[in-house]
Amino acid sequence: MRAAVLHEIGQDKLEVLDDVEAVGFGPGKVRIRVRATGLCHSDLSAMNGVLPQPAPFVPGHEGAGEILEVGEGVRGLSVGDRVVVCWLPACGACPACRRGQTELCLAGFMNAGTPNYKRPGGDLFGFAGTGTFAEEVVVDAGCAVPIPDDVPFDIAALIGCGVTTGLGAALNTADVEAGSSVAVIGCGGVGISAIQGARLRGAAEIVAVDPVPARREAALKFGAGRAVSPDELPDAKQQVTGGEGFDYVFEVVGRSATARTAYENTRRGGTLVVVGAGAMDDFLQLNMFELFFDEKRILPSMYGGGDVLRSYERTIALWRAGRIDLAGLITHRVPLTEINEALDQMRTGTALRTCIEI
Predict the structure, then answer these.
(1) What are phi and psi of 326, to 5 degrees?
(2) Structural contact between residues 208 and 232, judged by C-beta atoms closer than 8 angstroms
(3) Closest CA to 193 of 92, 271, 287, 273
(4) What is the pLDDT of residues 154-165, one digit of tens each?
(5) Residue closest to 226 by CA, chosen among 207, 202, 200, 199
(6) How far, rounded to the nearest angstrom, does the alpha carbon of residue 348 sit from its chain's CA centroid?
(7) What is the per-residue pLDDT for 260?
(8) DSSP string, 94-127
(9) Which of 38-52, 95-109, 215-229 is least confident?
């Protein structure tokens, strides 16, 4: 079958090969025919080594498709079911799951170190234990979440990561208060979803911050009242908050420099939400006095900070009701053979989300 492969960490191009085979099918597993997958910035971060990932590997973790085969012992799933791929399934039994913090379950990460593809040259890993830049993928049954028939595959793919992460950061992690002021730094697909979540919560002022003009323009269409470049943020802070700082600031880039900027633009007693996934050697510096004196809450948000399955259901309900726009997030579409064009669109910021149609 066909899949896009990164041979070594640090390469900036993927090679689309026809001799890849999905492996590992057996009890407790399902084989999925991938129909659509989104390109998330985390895929780029894994390719360049910011996020840890064994190589060679098949990127992609934001996918949807239909079940081709069901392993022994799998309940609730059948051949032909339409599913979204969940890259962080909850085991239901670990301490995090028992506390209700299913987004912190580590069961899914255990799969990341097991090859789930192979080709004549050797084994291949799938990014985050999945690897959706392929025609088929074999995953644990818990990674296959059924979706209603009225949800298109491209919309379902977005729900699998970016939308759930951004919406959840605003709705679950921050629990944005009506009438509040919000700034979102980084306005790709995840940042735009955070903006939509803040709008749903009734934020009075939403400022989108991004260096790319096209993304700033898009942010205004999705609910931001203002959209500024990073250099213009101090003026926006003065105009919107009188210089005090925003009630909530979302960092959706994954870099210590932008996290520091986000902290400085959060009011005393306000909330900084760290959504971007950054590198293990990139350290955020804060002094002990400001931590004590400013009493700012710093809230990391992992995969939207809530129960993933419930978040999927909520997102579908909001989409059906017209309360959120998911189709508008897909600004580009390419076939798998043109995956490197999608990578360029992500790197230059010309795309909010590119849908890879497989």
Answers:
(1) -100, -40
(2) no
(3) 273
(4) 999 999 999 999
(5) 207
(6) 18
(7) 98
(8) SHHHHTT-GGG--TGGGGGGS--EEETTEEEEEG
(9) 95-109
Give the pLDDT score at 51: 93
- Give the CA dihedral 201, 202, 204, 210, nearest 10 degrees: 40
Sign of the torsion angle spanned by Cα atoms 133, 135, 138, 144: positive
Claim: this prediction has a pTM higher than 0.90: yes
Contact call for residues 157 and 355 (beta carbons, < 8 A): yes
Q: What is d(CA 130, CA 114) in angstroms, rounded to the nearest whole number? A: 10
Asked whether residue 110 carries a pLDDT value surpassing 90, the answer given is: no
Percent of the chain with pLDDT over 70: 100
Tell me the C-alpha distance between 78 and 97, whole Å.
26
The DSSP bridge partners found for residue 181 are 205
Q: Is beta strand 144-146 parallel, antiparallel or unpaired with respect to 57-58?
A: unpaired
Both structure tokens of 280: 């293990």
Confidence of residue 11 (pLDDT cuts 50, 70, 90): very high
Dihedral sign computed on CA atoms, order 264, 268, 272, 278: positive
What angle separates helix 213-221 from helix 189-200, to the nearest 10 degrees? Answer: 30
What the block records as the tokens of 6 is 């990164």
SS3 readout for 215-284: HHHHHHHCCCCEEECHHHHHHHHHHHHCCCCEEEEEECCCCHHHHHHHHHCEEEEEEEEECCCCCCCCCC
112-136, pLDDT tens digit by residue? 778 999 999 899 999 999 999 999 9
Q: Which residues, 6+ apart, have CB-to-CB distance to 287 below 8 Å?
A: none
Residues found in the chain: 358
Q: How many CB atoms lie within 10 A of CB 182?
A: 31
